[in-house]
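Need tokens for this chain, all 66 residues.
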Amino acid sequence: MRIHTFEEYQKAYQESIEHPETFWAAVAKHFHWFQPWEKVKSGDFEAVNFQWFIGGKTNLCYNCID
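Here are the structure tokens for all 66 residues:
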């Protein structure tokens, strides 16, 4: 995702707050995954007990260099 204006940033930020699973799934699709995730998020922000991209396997260094 490329953000070019402050308005685009505000829209993306609002989407990430209102629909975090949809937002982050769309962002994560741009990465190479050795194994795709089964579920985007589990847990809850208030308890600060959550996991992201459950079942997925990637290497972010691989994604940065590639």
